[in-house]
Specification:
It is built from one helix and eleven strands, in the order αβββββββββββ. It is mainly β. It has one domain (6-46, 61-108).
Length: 122
């Protein structure tokens, strides 16, 4: 398997993260009902370094719907074009998003404290 140079990895990550600008993270139930949708700013991520980019501040969803989060979808601005799908687990699990509680109450605030996207070398 080929090994990607760091500049190539950075370019790949920067291309993907640019699609997230002004987009959102939609946390959904197993039935694909929206529970919460925190939003990215106009520039969603810092420039990649070492094949990894970290998200800038993500705005909270301060009026979530009740439900149990199963997974998440990241959408481009407008909320119809999907960039990627992510797994969700409780803190300490192996999910792409680790959440203190997957059970969200109506009107709860859902925050994304940190997020990164990495392109491995191989």
């Amino acid at each position: 398997m080929p090994t990607l140079a760091t500049d190539t990895r950075n370019a790949a990550v920067d291309a993907v993260t640019a699609l997230c600008n002004s987009g959102s993270i939609q946390f959904q139930t197993s039935a694909h009902n929206k529970v919460a949708e925190p939003t990215f700013g106009a520039t969603a991520f810092n420039a990649a370094s070492g094949g990894t980019a970290t998200a800038k501040t993500v705005a909270d969803d301060t009026d979530a719907s009740a439900g149990t989060i199963s997974h998440a979808h990241i959408f481009k601005t407008g909320g119809t074009d999907e960039v990627m799908q992510c797994t969700c687990t409780v803190t300490g699990g192996a999910g792409d998003f680790q959440i203190s509680s997957l059970v969200i109450g109506a009107g709860d605030t859902v925050s994304v404290l940190s997020m990164s996207i990495t392109q491995p070398a191989s």
